[in-house]
Write a structure and sequence with these properties.
Immunoglobulin-like; binds (2R,3S,4R,5S)-2-(hydroxymethyl)piperidine-3,4,5-triol; 9-stranded parallel beta sheet; 38 strands; single chain; 15 helices; 749 residues; Beta-galactosidase, Chain A, domain 5; 9-stranded antiparallel beta sheet; alpha+beta
């Protein structure tokens, strides 16, 4: 039983394989949080809560005269309410009919049942392996007539606990939910570091680690997406924790829109984490009896460092978030024409790219932006999802047939949430765009946002997109989203419901995605938002892979993919080999290095393959066969960050099969130095007693071969014990050229 209720002690303990989480219903029916961390017994751990009378921290009426040590301001709680004596950041705030916003929740019952709860209209982890149990904990504020049901999904084997919240208006009049966090997690006395991920277009998910000091630390997005600016995730860890030692908690939001993450270290050194929908653009009216479902968050803990925490999340996202046939099937190696042609193509050019690519082992051709409406640059046409037959030289059905005749699958690009002012759609339905009456809206890439909070807009998109998918027998959709939302107003909502627009927009987007997957269950959708601008576990429920970044420079990608790997698995990261000099940075890099970096993702190409030399085509063919050979290790193995691209001259990372039978060590020198210091690594995840060989995957035409001594180390024949490789380790071969990349396969014999 992974959820234990102790009736006598009134504790509820959640047990996963390696972690324990506990709450306690106290004498006033407040649900206290007593513990989350390394696995332990289900003793009542509320003894560890420190209680004394602390001036300026008041006491609830029912106990004030008896015990001044009881204060909501200092107690660790499962779910805190605003304005009733807890002065820290709180989880929920509701505007009642009398103009007050106070909430105080007390225990009102709970249910424990096998399986995993789901959330209407929202992405959520699922359980198809009988691994999960649900705790539904009902809290009530009987004075304010509000119920909060806290849901906990306990995935014992996966070492994960999910959380979600449902708010219900029990009163006789409408209420407005102004804040409803999905997670309130209180840490008692722990000294913590916090790792968050910031970025911008083409620089997504840069990790930043800082000590959690007193005060409120907050990140979030008010951009209508989870955003590249801050990722909707956080790691909290011991200040001494590193990749392989120490306590680390990972929290990530299963939501793709505006979020706020607040971390407050309070006056007595307790820390509270609150994560939920960002309250700035949020005000949701609940009529009597109505319900609001807040999105889900995923929590995991490791006592063995950040790396194990990352791998818990990777495994969980791969197995319990990503759905459908593409969860387990090998995804196709693709070629995308964007950086190859931009808007400048016709049907013949597309077919010639597909044909060349097919001969080298590429399995899917993706037609990017520019195939529809009037769209020869990025100033017009969005919303008119009707093939431009003049430009293509044929119908989309015919193009689909011609592409498939080359032997590859066919994918196509959409940007469903966008509309150009210069489009038939906007001319016909100006009120379908998100604009504030009387105010000229911001344009971004000359786009407006389509109001997906409207059902008519959702239906329009479902119809247009499915017509194209059906006609051309599309196997894959690249779902792009290239701007942030502002000037928020829905022409279909009354003024008192404008605060619902942003979340309704997200629900509408999810509905369109779900409708397409229902009609086309084998469709592979790749998410994209000017690269990795909406890279979150919410999207991964619909889109098993997401374009990692518009920055395809492999040296820049080392940092982006390193940052991404803290939370998200390789199998979700869209990554392509592009042309050199790189279109974003002008950097010139070797083709084999570009291949090694792109292989730590879903792998594909984004260049004009017709322009490649015969030697380059040979190298493409070699890379694709290496990728196919190593696929299971790369996509499903454990991931280890062996050096960081920020502090070293060589970035080294490894993937190892869960059973330790094979590992792939990748290394890229991103800086060159004369007389360099050697780069030393210890392999992770092997079997101590087993014997392994090391094999260097060399690209033909490598400028300078390795000397015989180094070649002997990686000859694919010499045997090393797993223990030796993990304790003694080895040196990465020195570089022979700028931006040298190496790929070393370690196999059990
Ligand atoms: C932004 C995406 O990130 C690119 O890959 C490409 O699809 C362009 N949009 C097309 O407009």
């Amino acid at each position: 039983m992974s959820i234990l209720y102790n009736e006598e002690k009134r504790t509820i303990t959640l047990q996963t394989r390696n972690s324990t989480y506990q709450m306690k219903i106290d004498e006033l029916n407040t649900v206290l949080h007593t513990y989350y961390g390394e696995k332990t017994a289900d003793d009542d751990m509320s003894y560890a809560i420190h209680r004394i009378d602390r001036g300026l921290s008041g006491n609830p009426a029912e106990i004030a005269k008896i015990d001044r040590s009881y204060s909501l301001d200092t107690l660790p709680q499962e779910y805190s309410g605003f304005g009733t004596g807890d002065y820290r950041v709180t989880a929920a705030r509701v505007l009642h009919g009398d103009g007050t916003q106070a909430l105080r929740f007390r225990y009102a019952g709970h249910e424990i049942y096998p399986g995993k709860y789901s959330i209407p209209g929202l992405p959520a982890a699922y359980d198809d392996a009988d691994d999960a149990m649900t705790l539904a904990l009902t809290l009530k504020d009987t004075e304010a007539n509000v119920t909060a049901i806290l849901y906990y999904g306990v995935f014992e084997k996966a070492d994960v606990i999910t959380r979600a919240v449902k708010l219900i208006n029990d009163g006789p009049e409408p209420k407005v939910v102004n804040k409803v966090a999905s997670v309130n997690l209180d840490f008692i006395g722990d000294d913590l570091d916090m790792i968050t991920f910031y970025g911008r277009w083409a620089r997504e998910r840069t990790p930043e680690r800082e000590h959690v000091t007193h005060g409120i630390h907050s990140i979030g997005s008010v951009r209508g997406s989870s955003s590249p600016h801050y990722s909707p995730s956080v790691i909290l860890c011991d200040p001494t924790a590193d990749e392989f030692t120490g306590s680390a908690y990972g929290v990530t939001f299963v939501y793709s829109c505006e979020f706020e993450l607040e971390i407050e270290k309070d006056m007595i050194n307790n820390t509270r984490l609150v994560l939920g929908i960002h309250p700035d653009n949020f005000a949701w009216t609940l009529q009597p009896g109505e319900v609001f479902d807040a999105p889900e968050a995923i929590l995991t803990y490791s006592a063995n460092g950040i790396s194990e925490m990352s791998n818990n999340l990777h495994r969980f996202i791969r197995k319990h978030i990503v759905r459908g046939p593409w969860r387990d099937a090998r995804r196709p190696v693709l070629i995308n024409n964007w950086e190859g042609t931009y808007f400048n193509f016709d049907g013949d050019k597309l077919v010639s790219i597909a044909a060349d690519a097919a001969t080298l082992g590429v399995e899917m051709f993706v037609l990017d932006d520019g195939w529809f409406g009037k769209r020869d640059d990025d100033n017009s046409g969005l919303g008119d999802w009707f093939p431009n037959e003049k430009k293509l030289g044929c119908t989309i059905e015919e193009l689909g047939k011609r592409i498939k005749a080359t032997g590859v699958k066919f994918g196509i690009w959409f940007e469903p949430e966008a509309v150009s002012e210069d489009s038939d759609l906007y001319r016909t339905h100006p009120d379908w765009a998100v604009t504030i009456p009387g105010r000229k809206p911001n344009l971004s890439r000359n786009e407006l946002i389509l109001d997906l909070s409207r059902v008519d807009v959702q239906d329009y998109l479902i119809k247009c997109m499915s017509d194209v998918i059906r006609a051309a027998q599309i196997d894959y959709v690249k779902w792009d989203y290239n701007r942030s939302i502002c000037d928020k107003y829905s022409h279909a909502l009354p003024k008192e419901r404008q605060g619902e627009m942003t979340h309704r927009f997200m629900l509408g987007t999810y509905r369109v995605l779900e409708a397409l997957l229902t009609e086309f269950p084998d469709l592979l959708i790749e998410g994209c938002s000017s690269g990795g601008g909406r890279f979150d576990a919410g999207m991964m429920y619909y889109t098993p892979q997401i374009w990692g970044s518009d920055d395809t420079d492999p040296i820049e990608r080392l940092e982006i993919q390193y940052g991404t790997s803290f939370i998200y698995p390789v199998s979700t990261v869209g990554s392509h080999v592009s042309a050199t000099p790189n279109h974003q940075t002008g950097r010139v890099t070797p083709l084999d290095t570009r291949g090694i970096v792109a292989m730590s993702g879903t792998f594909g190409y984004e260049l004009d393959i017709n322009k490649m030399s015969a030697e380059e085509k040979d190298e493409v063919q070699r890379q694709i066969s290496v990728f196919k050979e190593l696929y299971s290790t790369i996509q499903y193995g454990n991931y280890y960050r062996l050096t960081t691209p920020f502090d070293h001259t060589c970035t080294v990372w490894e993937m190892a099969d869960e059973d330790g039978a094979r590992a792939v060590v990748n290394a890229v020198y991103h800086a060159v130095r004369a007389n360099p210091a050697p780069v030393f690594v210890k392999v992770k995840g092997l079997k101590k007693e087993a014997k392994y060989t090391m094999r260097l995957m060399e690209a033909p035409g490598l400028m300078y071969p390795l000397d015989t001594r180094q070649q002997a180390v990686f000859d694919g024949e010499t045997l090393y014990s797993g223990q030796t490789l993990m304790t003694r380790g080895f040196y990465i071969p020195a570089y022979r050229k700028e931006y040298q990349g190496w790929q070393i396969i370690i196999e059990e014999k």
